[in-house]
Amino acid sequence: MSFNNLDTLYRQVIMDHYKNPRNRGSVEGDHLTVDMNNPTCGDRIELQLQVNDGVVEDAKFDGEGCSISMSSASMMTQAIQGKSVDEVLKMSRIFSNMMLGNEVEDDTLDLGDIESLQGVSKFPARIKCATLAWKAMEKGVDEEEA
C-alpha cells in the first residue's frame, strides 16, 4: 500500500472515531473521574474509569475538542478496557513514544486503531491534542493506586 493510500486510510479511521465515538458517556457504579483540558486549543475531556483489582473494567469519556483529541479518547477507551493497570501504562508509554516520532518496537501489545494517530507526530502543535486522554488516564490510574 502506498504512503498516500495509508495516509488516507488513517484519516478515515480518525474521522470515523470522531464522528462515531466509542465509549462516549458515563460509567455506571463506582468509578473515578478525571477532568483535563488543553487550554492551547480548547480541548476538554472528562474521563471516567472503573478499576477493580488492578484491571480497567470500564472506561468512558465526554468532552469537546478537535477530531484528533476526541478520536484519540475514543480509541484509548476502547483499547484499555479489560487490560491491567500495568498494560495500560505500558500502552501509554508506547503511545507517547509514537507521538515523539520514535519507532514503536514493542509488538506485545496490539495498538489497533491507535496506530492511525502516528502521523500526528509530524505536527507538534497537535501532539497535546492526541495525548490529552492518555494523560487523563495516567492521572486516574495514579489516583486509583494511591
From TrEMBL:
Domain NIF system FeS cluster assembly NifU N-terminal: 10-129
Pfam family, one: NifU_N
InterPro entries per record: NIF_FeS_clus_asmbl_NifU_N
Lineage: superkingdom: Bacteria
NCBIfam families: SUF_scaf_2 (TIGR01994)
PANTHER family: IRON-SULFUR CLUSTER ASSEMBLY ENZYME NIFU HOMOLOG
Protein name: Fe-S cluster assembly sulfur transfer protein SufU
Originating species: Halobacillus seohaensis
